Amino acid sequence: MTSKEFQNAKDISPLATWSVSSHKFGFGVANLKDPDPELFWQSEGPQPHFISLQFPHRVNILKLSIYLSHPKDDSYTPQKLSIRAGTGRHDLTEVRLHEVDKPEGWVTIDLRDGAVEGEEAEEMEEGQPIPAFLLQIVVVANHLNGKDSHVRGLKVWGPKADMDPEVDDYPFSTIAMKQHECLR
After folding, report:
1. pLDDT for position 180
2. pLDDT at 87
3. pLDDT class of 124 with cuts at 50, 70, 90
4. Is residue 3 part of a domain?
5. Which of 51, 90, 146, 147 could form a disulfide with 142 if both were Cys (CB 3.0 to 4.6 A apart)?
6. What span, in angstroms and rounded, lies between the C-alpha atoms of 81 and 151?
7. Best mean pLDDT range from 2-6, 58-62, 125-129
């Protein structure tokens, strides 16, 4: 990850409640949140595998960074990822289908509306962030048709401006009003 790439972004992952579709004992959600790349989440059971991040209020999402290591994990390495966003599980919409080939390290996926990956991305103007209450990463397939998956880290990036307390979409100021600002 380059500093230029993230100069206007902030890690919003800690705001979310994390859950996974399955995990092997000792290799759960806590390993996904840990900055140590030697730790990893390991799914258990048939595909697809899910990682869900439920935010307490609507957030704007720019990018997703996922740490994968094909040299260490071989057939456990995700190859095809479906990124979905919505207000809840009932209305998730796929915003990106991303394929990786033998990744090693952080893979960053631009989720902005209209974003294009590859060489064309540098020429495009920046799109709008994706607003969501729920972000879901679905492991659709692994390298070599592996069954279980290893993910060594995950971060979700939002605009820094959204984190500025002076920029408030809902200017509730009293305690009585603040208690209702996250209702949807």
Report:
1. 63
2. 94
3. very low
4. no
5. 146
6. 12
7. 58-62
Q: Residue 41 above 90 pLDDT?
A: yes
pTM higher than the cut 0.85: no
Query: What total number of domains does the chain contain?
Result: 1
pLDDT over 80 (residue 123): no
Q: Averaged over 49-64, what is the pLDDT?
A: 96
DSSP the chain: --TTTTTTEEE-GGGSEEEES---TT-SHHHHHSS-TT--EE--SSSPEEEEEEEEEEEEE-EEEEEEEHHHHGGGSEEEEEEEEESSGGG-EEEEEEE-SS-EEEEEEE-STT---STHHHHSPP-PPEEEEEEEEEEEEEGGG-SS-EE-EEEEEEEGGGG-TTS-SS---SHHHHTTTT--
Q: Does 184 map to a domain?
A: no
- C-alpha–C-alpha distance, residues 94 and 80, integer Å: 13
Assign residue 116 the CATH number of its domain: 2.60.120.260
